[in-house]
Design brief:
The protein is an alpha+beta fold. It has one domain: Alpha-Beta Plaits, CATH 3.30.70.100. About 20% of the residues lie in helices and about 30% in strands. The protein has a four-stranded antiparallel sheet. A hairpin with a 7-residue loop joins strand 2 and strand 3. Bound molecules: protoporphyrin IX containing FE.
């Protein structure tokens, strides 16, 4: 049974487009990770400023291995926070990881 890991990233109200651009620039970066089953970047359609990175993994071990890998570190460089160059700084002001498993549902018919 797959697991769902959601990174909820809160941005300043005018930074959402920049977040989307940064994700677009990293398209494919996670695709080859063992046990990775896909992700979606979810943009709020109301006035919330929290975007969701909804990722799906084979199991906890696969997710933990990716987070511990050089590939993750490369895509999430912590020195960016201290960068003097504003375009390199993280756009998120807060983030937290939510952990879920599928407990029911339906594939729909359309
Ligand atoms: C659930 C898994 C993930 C975790 C725990 C995670 C962790 C993080 C964290 C802590 C941030 C910083 C947020 C902030 O600025 O406060 C971030 C931003 C980001 N992550 Fe992830 N991430 C995950 C999945 C992904 C995936 C699948 C991708 C796409 C390859 C990705 C690409 C990015 C990008 C582009 C940013 C924005 C960096 C910036 O502001 O320059 N992340 N992530």
């Amino acid at each position: 049974m797959s697991i769902i890991k959601i990174n909820a990233i809160t941005v300043a109200s005018d930074s959402g487009d920049e977040l989307a651009k940064r994700f677009a620039a990293r398209a494919g970066a996670v695709d080859n990770a063992d046990g990775f089953e896909g992700f979606e970047l979810l943009k709020p359609t109301d006035d919330r400023t929290t975007w969701l990175v909804m990722t799906r993994w084979r199991d906890e071990d696969a997710f933990n291995a990716w987070v511990a890998s050089p590939a993750f570190a490369h895509g999430h460089r912590s020195e960016a926070a201290a960068s003097a160059e504003p375009t390199q700084r993280p756009v998120g002001v807060h983030s937290e990881v939510w952990s879920y498993t599928v407990a029911g549902g339906s594939p729909g018919s359309n």
